[in-house]
Design brief:
The protein is mainly alpha-helical. The protein has 4 helices and 2 strands; from the N terminus they run H-H-H-H-E-E. About 5% of the residues have low confidence.
């Protein structure tokens, strides 16, 4: 199998953890396994369960309406420091 080198930028703390937890000789294999698990199948199949779940969420009008309501909410703080939810409407 032909390979290709890819440059990836990571936050410093994540890069440190990666280097500390995965040995030099295992890093490419580690990233390859993560990508194979996370990406849809190479054949372009739409049978991927995660992809199907995302499509179902996009088509769900009730969920879209609820998400619209959540967008209108914001977090505020009382003088006591307690967090409260309030709508952005007056």
């Amino acid at each position: 199998m032909a390979t290709q080198q890819v440059l990836v930028r990571l936050p410093e703390e994540l890069a440190r953890r990666f280097k500390r937890c995965v040995s030099d000789r295992r890093r490419s294999e580690f990233i390859q396994r993560l990508l194979e698990q996370a990406l849809p199948p190479a054949d372009g199949s739409e049978n991927d369960p995660l992809y199907q779940a995302a499509l179902a969420v996009e088509r769900d009008t009730r969920l879209a309406a609820e998400m619209g309501e959540w967008k209108m909410l914001s977090i505020g703080e009382r003088d006591s420091g307690d967090t409260v939810w309030r709508t952005s409407r007056p």
